[in-house]
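Changelog excerpt

This revision adds worked examples to the README so contributors can see how folded entries look when concatenated. The first example is reproduced verbatim below.
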Amino acid sequence: MEQCLAVAIIHGMGSYDPDFADDIIAKLQKYFPEKVTRDQLDRAKLVIKPIYWAEIPHAKEEAVWQDVVASGEMNETDLRRFIFDLAGDTLAYQPSKGRRGLYLDVHKQITETFCELAEEAGEDVPLCIVAHSLGTVVAQNFLYDMQNDMQDTSQLIERGTPLERGETLALFCTYGSPLAIWRLRFGDEYKAIDFPGHALEQLYPNLQAKWYNLYDKDDVLGYPISNLTEHYAQLVKDGYLEDQPVSVGNIFTTWNPMSHLGYFNDDNEIDKLAGFLADIWKGAYG
């Protein structure tokens, strides 16, 4: 009998295609079998789905960019467009009073993907979220809204299964996360999510849930979070949260801020991620 993990991969800010996760998924399916025994491999299965939300803010960003281009000549247009997309995603996604439409549209992509995962992997299997950049903020906001029963987000759920509500969250991998910057938006009112998922201990008592926050020290958009608030510090003390400095990118990017784009293109990090997933599977089923 197959015993599954549900894995959701969320991209970050910037321009992405719907197939952004194809290479990551292929590598995880290659490396994961190397992390379990032959007997376990007969039972172990990863059900992996990408969460693609870039198209939601992109149309508005493209329209404004064309107005900018028509306004006058600029140097470094490729770099300017890169920064424009990064800032545009961040500003467009931020919710405010009376302006939560795009925020909820992005969260709708999460609920639809979680519903697919529940149907294919199982309604209460361990949930693993792998997120990059602004995607880490998107994931945390969605989970926070679920945990605090924010009505407009809760209504997006289709079937109300434990997995769809994030209640089986067992692994949270945040790569190049700007959560430290996001905290500034809320000041002392900022609260982290409860981790792990509320139903995990009862369903999988032998599973050690983990939140790995991975950041390249040259990445100016990725930050450690262990002491961001007392809640984060407590997660560290409880053995759930761990900051991990890494080095990603190629010879041209590993030493500079462009390393922000290297996390999901680094074979060593994907191999490490496969190990994280194997540890979660063994804790649940092994």
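The second example, added in the same revision:
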Amino acid sequence: MMVTYIFLLTFQYDFAKDGLVYSSPFVLMFVRYLIAAVTLLALARTFRPIINKDIIILAIVTSIGTILWILGLQNIQFSQSAVLSFTFPLFAIPLSSLILKEGSSKIVWIGAIIGFAGTVIYSLPLYSTRFTTLAVIFSVGGALFVALYAVYARKVRLLQSSRVAGTQFLLGSVVLLVLIPNGVTLTLAPRFLIDLLYVSIPGGAVSFYLWFVMSKLETVGRLSVLTFAVPAATVVVQFLQTDYVPPDSSLVGIFLVFLGIFISRRD
């Protein structure tokens, strides 16, 4: 399941970045959420959402994380967005300890600190303009809310995965609908439809469903650190497409991020 999850998310950033050429971010994410919600609730064989406090919190933090991610993606390359977004394990480790009481040892905390230092170093070359600075802030802020999503996904693990994920997308679409008036552009080009379908189903419904299923089997810390294969693969994809090579300082930052994750997994 994790191999499939990593594969699907590797291309998610590329399709989402291309989709922003044809659509404003809130419109793109609103339609994505609706498609994903219908897909997952159909899989659950019921269109009755699950409504309780934890599910509402889950939907809110997920939609906020999505908003921050897509706003950040507008002004940086998709491989940069992937690296910054997948710093979420560095937040998930302490949050799972605080909220779920899933204890973490000293070595996990050491790994998290090293990984966070790598994130800071990786981000430094991106602070070139006000727009990219905001993109970094949005992307890392989004990672914090993704970490909260991972924690609450674990918290509701005893519920039906497809129904929980479908409810999350359905409630999140309401949040995104409220924000649509802040920017509405949409061009229904064939390429956009391909982008939309990918981010909605493989990169949306399927990947979220897989995460909920995996959350039943493993703690947040151990599960989330495995996802650092996503930004690594995304950097490779962008290199193959554009020959883009991150600056030396960014490569050092990437190395430290992965070193931190490797250390965390030694627990």
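Reviewer comment on example two: The chain has one domain: 2-264. The radius of gyration is 18 Å.
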